[in-house]
Specification:
It is built from 3 helices and 4 strands, in the order E-H-E-H-E-E-H. The protein has 82 residues and is an alpha+beta fold. The chain has a 4-stranded mixed beta sheet with strand order 2-1-3-4, sandwiched between helices.
Length: 82
């Protein structure tokens, strides 16, 4: 199963929007959703502060600031074994 990681922080409205899109996509294209609060450690905070939300699929950064739901669906569908 694919793993999607959302880098976010509390009070970020763009992060809330991204989370909602991910949950909608997840309903039809299942994946493991992990969330990382960038405030958890200094290095992550410095790396992502100006870029959140950042969405990563299986270790590869796909989106920052927004999520393209159609693109994500396509990427998830392409991962599925026939």
């Amino acid at each position: 199963m694919a793993t999607v990681t959302l880098f976010s922080r509390p009070g970020c409205h763009l992060c809330d929007d991204a989370r909602a899109i991910l949950k909608t996509v997840r309903a039809s294209h299942p994946f493991d959703l992990q969330e990382r609060d960038i405030e958890a450690d200094d290095a992550t905070f410095k790396a992502y502060l100006e870029r959140i939300p950042v969405v990563v699929l299986d270790g590869r950064e796909l989106y920052e600031l927004f999520v393209d739901p159609d693109d994500l669906r396509g990427r998830l569908a392409a991962r599925r074994p026939e």
